[in-house]
Each structure stands twice: as structure tokens, then as C-alpha cells.
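In the laboratory, one determines a bound structure by crystallizing the protein with its ligand and collecting diffraction data. In a computational setting the workflow is compressed into a single prediction: the sequence and the ligand go in, and a structural description comes out. We illustrate the idea with 4'-deoxy-4'-aminopyridoxal-5'-phosphate.
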Amino acid sequence: MPSSRELDLLSRRERVLSSTYRLFYDEPVHVVRAEGVWMFDADGRRYLDAYNNVPVVGHGHPYVVDRLSRQARLLNTHTRYLTDAPLELAERLIATLPQELRHVTFTCTGSEANDLAVRIAKAATAGTGFIVTKYAYHGTTEATAALSPASGIALGPNVFGFEVAPSNPAAFGSRVRECIESMQRAAVRPAALIIDTILSSDGVISHPAGFLAEAVEAIHDAGGLFIADEVQPGFGRTGEGMWGFQRHGVIPDIVTMGKPMGNGHPIAAIVTRAEVAKEFASRTQYFNTYGGNTVSCEVGLAVLEVIEREDLIAHVREVGSYIEQKLRELAESHSALTDVRGIGLFIGVQTESPATAKRLANQMRRLGVLIGTTGPRSDTLKIRPPLIFARADADLLLQALSTALREASQRSI
Ligand code: PMP
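The predicted complex, in C-alpha cell form:
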């Protein structure tokens, strides 16, 4: 039962916030603070955060927060002056990417990054056609919403979508070729294929590594670009490197990144091949008031430093494969779990139905563990904790899921 304080928040929310917003869980959580992998509600109850990918180095990481506040006191300005932080951050980011990817543009959100990528792709190719997966999500601007069928919006004009079943990722390349053919039949010139390289809203499709390669070859053959949307898998989440596309042995023309980049502070970016942004830059200037501001760039640098110093990518690999293995064991004894997919600390557990996934996520919340749901039918549990998630945290998560499954099966008897 919600407390009177929660009821008050709910009614104020309804009164003053747009009805476009959605809360998580049948019993929404009123969080008042967070630290590391824990979130705390107004009564001091703690919840294990196995959902939030933004606070990648943990909620309120002291080093990140110190650097943020120190810089905020010293200077916060934009990219029209000579400042060190954006350059340092750009250099650090470029050093994590294949050498072809050389030029950075900062934005504030992943949506802005993808929106800019769309503009650049159109300018570079003189094309207008885009290819997306059928349940893709790429952002909130008009151009990126048109590439985001997962938000319940119809595909925009000249946007071609294709479905790929988690059980058949090998079909990925041929689906993209079919899209290109449809595009050509409609006399639309291809601009780009844009893919979230962990396919999160498509239900988390991660294996076999390499399945994107044929699709990238196809779009290149047709004169289009490949945009790797790294907003979800970027910054080490796969445990196999900094970026999701690296698992597929491909080199994107444009990489977009966001969410974890600022550990909760709004900073995002795109990185392009040198020749790709040329046409766009020759005709247009791009000035984003807050994109590349000094404070955000210091935060971005702090996040990168922590990822490196705490050896988080190796940590993700180890804890992620432990969770995955334990989830597989759990799935063997519970028919409600029908598939386990994912890599590193991005795991999708397919359940027998959307109702089951919803029930399990709600029950986990009651047990003090926060997870979500995803996939075309919202039938997949989304487990995507901060990267500092430890093995002991994993055990708490697995214990809670096991209890939730037991309770769910007792209820259905
Ligand atoms: N791309 C992907 C794959 C995303 O998951 C999201 C956010 N969920 C975005 C882009 C948009 O990022 P933002 O919400 O920062 O605009």
C-alpha cells in the first residue's frame, strides 16, 4: 500500500507533470538517495539497483562528484573559448576507438547525438533513407523518434524497419539487404543503417558476436553509412571492450554515445570518421550551448578514469558471466524462464509471457531488487546494473529472482 506521502506525490505528479511519463512498478518507489549499487526510499529501505545503466561507476561516485563540484566552482563555459577539458575528453575517447574514428562533437543527450548523426549521414551521402530494427529506440527528437518504433510511433518517411528474432540473428545481414532493395525500389537513396549494438529494445540480442558484419557490408555496398548507437552498450557494459560494435568486428562511420558517459550528468557525443563529417561541416556550424561544457567534460573524464582505474571492464566480464551462468541454471528448473541472452552486465531473461515478466519485476521490487522489462512484447527481464555490481550483489539478485519465481509458481497452482 502506498504511504500518504507517496499518494500525495502521485496526485501532484498527475496534476503538474505531462501524462506522457510512466512510472516503474505497480507500487512505485519513492527514492530519496543512492550510493554505489543501492537506492534508498523515504523510509530508509534500501533497494539493490540491478537496472540503472547510467550511474555506470555507481551512484554518487565520490571522485566523479568531487571533480564535478570543483570544476563547477572554477569555470563552466562552452566550446567557443579555448578550454582544456573538451580536448582532453575527445582525446581520451578517440584513444578507445579504432583509428578511423577521429572527430568528436559533444551533445547533452543520446537523442541529440543520434539526431546529429542523422544530419551528418544525410549530408555525407546525399541520401534520405534509414534502416532500423523493428523495435529500435534511438531518441526523442522528431528525427530520432521517427527511427524509434519502440516508442509506439510509426516509422518516419524513408525509414525502413526489419524484424530479427533473437533465435535467428544470422538473418540480420539478409534482412538489411532486403531493406536496401525495398528502398531502391521506392527510389530512396540510403543514408544509413543505425543499430543499437546490444539491440536492447529488440529484446537483447547479443550472440553470436559478428552477426552485424554482413549488415554493415551491405549498407556500405549501397553507399550508406553505419551508425553504431552505443548509448546502451558503450563504456564497458559488454565486458569485452569499451564499445558494443567491437564484438562484431566492424568499424562504424559514426559512433553515438550518451547515458553512462556522465554517470548521471547529461553528456553525450558522436565520433565520426574524418571524411564523413566534412560535407556537413562545410555547410553548417554546430553549436550546442551545453554540449562540451567544461563541467560535463570534467565529469566525462572522471568516469573514464574510474572505469580504467577500477578495471571495470574485466570486472564486468567476470560478474556478468557468473550471473549469466546462474540464470541459466535457474532457467533449467523454472519453465517460466525460456531464454537467457546478453553479454557482460546487460542480460535479458525471456519469460513465458509479458504477464510473467511484469509479475516477476514487481515481485523483485517488493523483495528489494530493482530490474525492468524489455523486448517487443515486454516479456523479457532486463538486468543491467551499474558496472561496479559485485558478485555478492549478484547473489542477492539471484536469490530474489529465485524467491520471486517460487512465489509466482505457487500462486499459479
Ligand atoms: N539510443 C538508445 C539505444 C537508447 O537506449 C537511448 C535512451 N534510452 C537513446 C538513444 C536516447 O538517449 P537519451 O535518452 O539520452 O536522449
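The first helix runs from residue 4 to 16. Keep in mind that any predicted model is a hypothesis to be tested, not a measurement.
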